[in-house]
Amino acid sequence: MKLSKLKAPNTFVIISSLLVLTAALTWIIPSGEFQRTELHGREVVVEGSFNYVQSNPQSIGDLLDAPIRGFQDAAMIIGFVFIVGGAFGVFQKTNAVNSAIIGIAKAHKSSKFLQLFLIPILITMFSLAGAVFGMGEEVIPFILVFIPLLLMLGYDSIVGIAIPFVGAGAGFAGAFLNPFTIGIAQDIAGLQLFSGLPYRFFVWVCTTIVTILFIQYYAKKVKTNPAISPTYQKDLERRKKINHDDISKHDGLSGVHKRVLYLFLLGLVILIVGVLEFQWFIEEISAVFLVTGIVVGIAGKLSLNEITDSFIMGAKDLIATALVIALARGILIISQDGKIIDTILYSLSAPISALHPIVSAQAMFFVQSILNFFVPSGSGQAVLTMPIMAPLADLVGVTRQTAVLAFQFGDGFSNMIIPTSAVTMGVLSIADVPWEKWARWILPLEIIFFVLGLLLLIPPYLIGWQ
After folding, report:
1. By three-state DSSP, how is residue 447 classified?
2. What is the pLDDT of residue 2?
3. What is the model's pTM?
4. CA–CA dist 310, 91 (Å, integer)
């Protein structure tokens, strides 16, 4: 068979294969556990307490149970996805979003400033959201807006995903105020909350600039030659639904559309304030989207039946996304039940003590990247690894501040490509883009990020960053 005729497996096949592989690893990797203790209300690992325990290899029955247990374990994020999809179903039914997209496209067509700076401005906004309040799941609804917008502007679905998702991801990795990663990691490491801010801000600027340059370069290429896009065939179908005559005929937003958009933006402002000031999480954010969906439906002059039907249709479109999230979470469950995560952490961290401080910091970044495949949660990974990495940093001459930065990079950069991340797979599923196509596109950027991370871990040693 010719290579050109070979078809890559779809996302469900890939995730299912990883689930089987993880179960197989529980038969190969010895089981081990660290002791846990409570620190500031969180259960953390006790450094130096690792012991091998009786192996618990996962059976076929455990493997078959994993998906439904994944649904149970990821119930909140799956419910969040359905509510967001429903709210956007109502939002789209009002036609306000389509009118706004057409308006932006028309302004972009006539404005040299927007043609040059729209993408950098949008990426910076999302990167700032990732850096300040750890934008993660919140990026999912924006995919529904940005793909049609960027298609109308002459780009492709990849750019529509990359602006909000990679923008927020880069900010998350180079964060300077994120309470869910920096806050927890610094707390466990015994550092002052959000200390080391000047260098962290410099790191954020570097990651954001790299992201802008990479996406802007690709966007320019794909606009010149759409056939190079990994989603070219899919975008041809999507573009058939776009009436470009609407751009020239667009006379601006109606009063109803303006009210809908203002109310939707108000909902986002409430969300941001809630996350920053009141530490809202998925439950509260879901409630905001639920109320926003109902309010914009009423403001958009939809009947109660139209609001209900639109909500159901919007949620129904995300069934595949929910399945992907459950399968991805099942991988974590298998590795936890097989008790191999602590063994992997112990095996990877032990050799670091023999390295030069700079190389030790870089090795911490590498270890965190590997562990992120099994624990794709910033707060979860901080609780698992920082009780070990913080005292290990003292032993090898690396400051604890640097150890926190290595954790940030390891958790943040790889999040944008690993198929075990519920957010990554949720974004790709809602965009209807296969993981393997996304992985091929983002791999060069991941390599750049990895090299950038290695380089940014050098100055902290030279300046004695505390």
Report:
1. helix
2. 38
3. 0.73
4. 9
Token pair for 54: 């009786």
Report residue 250 CA to chain centroid gap: 35
- If we measure between CA atoms, which residue out of 79, 176, 80, 181 comes closest to residue 127? 176
Q: Which range marks the domain in which residue 72 is found?
A: 9-50+62-463
Q: Which helix (H) or strand (E) holds 246?
A: helix 245-249
CB 157 within 8 A of CB 147: yes
Domain presence at residue 2: no
In a domain, 353, yes or no: yes
CA gap 363, 368 in Å, rounded? 9
Closest CA relative to residue 93, chosen from 319, 307, 315:
307
- Per the domain annotation, does 122 fall within a domain? yes
What is the identity of the amino acid at 397? G
The tally of domains found in the chain comes to 1
Residue 256 has pLDDT above 90, yes or no: no
In whole angstroms, give the CA distance from residue 407 to residue 230.
32
Q: Which residue has the tokens 């595949």?
A: 320
Residues 6+ apart with CB under 8 A from 67: 19, 326, 327, 330
Would you say residue 57 lies in a domain? Answer: no
* All residues at 6 or more sequence positions from 177 whose CB lies less than 8 Å from its CB, including other chains: 131, 132, 133, 194, 197
Contact 396, 357 (CB under 8 A): yes
CA distances from 96 to 19, 246, 247, 458 (A): 41, 14, 14, 49
Round to whole Å and give the CA distance between 181 and 372.
Answer: 13
Q: What percent of the chain has pLDDT over 90?
A: 30
Contact present, 172 and 410 (Cβ < 8 Å) = no
Measured from the Cβ of residue 436, the count of other Cβ atoms closer than 10 Å reads 17
